[in-house]
Structure formats: structure tokens, C-alpha cells
Amino acid sequence: MEKQKSSAKQIMINYGLLLGLVSILISVANYAFGNIYKPHWIVTVIGFIIPVGFIVMGIKKVKEQNNGYLKLGEAIKTALGIVLISAIIFLIYFILFTNFIEPEFYTRSLEFKKQIMLDNYPNMSDEQLENAMKMQEKFSNNMTTSAFIIIFNLVYGLIIGLITGLIMKKTDEEITSI
Description:
The chain has one domain (2-99, 143-176). The protein contains 7 helices and no strands. It has helices at 2-32, 41-65, 72-101, 105-120, 126-138, 142-168, 172-176. The radius of gyration is 20 Å and the shape is elongated. 20% of the residues are buried. The model has no long low-confidence stretch (mean pLDDT 92).
């Protein structure tokens, strides 16, 4: 049983590292194409699909190592492990990015958001715009962004792990009850 636990941890580490690296590659490509502040919609779609693939492959691998058996809890734990490792890897890159590669990231991001508000809400008063920008500024830092990335990834991983686990689960009780 100890071998299976270490194998499950290794699967989480391997798929988490791979997903983190793929996420970084997508971000670098987005930056190289000049779309860091307003990514093309296809980048957003890809950003939601790729983690699903890594999570499903990781859960499938855990099921294979357990001789075809998979409990829902194992699926969820595997998914959460994968996305947590991936999020940490991406955060290291993102902090380096915002501190060294694009140190004006948050300032330019706020300018971009301000322009979007002006374009989409032409009747917005100066006071409303100022209040909205003050609120945006409160959330424009590495600490808040890091917390958001970790929380979002864990919730997303939980949902995908739950759905995948419900589809793929197979326990001893199910076999003996037939």
C-alpha cells in the first residue's frame, strides 16, 4: 500500500509540473504576441481545457496503478494535488514576470482596465470611475493575485476531480454487489 501512495504522489508531482510548464508556455506565447492584457478568446478556452486533460490523465494513471479501482476521494485528491503543484510553479513564473520581465504589469493592466470601463460605460461619472479604479488598485498586487490563482485552481481542480472521479470511480463494494 505504501508503494501505491508514493506512486499517487509521484503522479501528482509529474502531472502538476507538466501542467505548470504548459501554463507558463501559454503565458510566454501570449506575452510574445503582445496579448498579455487582453488575451485572445482561444487562449482562455485553451487555459480551461488543458488542465482538464492533465487532471483526467493523472486520475486515470492512479486508477491504473490501483488495478482498475478508484475511489472518489482519490480522484479529488489527485486533481487537487496536480492543480496545486501547477499553480505554485506558475506563481513562481508570474512573480518573476511581474517583478523583472514586465515590472509595469499592474500599472499597465490598470490603464487597460480603465480604458475598457470608459469604452463600455460612457455614462460613468468621474467619481464612479475613480471608485472603480481604487477598487481595482487594491487587488493589483502579487499577494492578491497569488491568492486568487491558488484559490481558483483549487476550486477548478475540485470540480474537475469530482466530475472525473464520479465517472471513473470503481470500488470493491461495486464489484461484490453485482
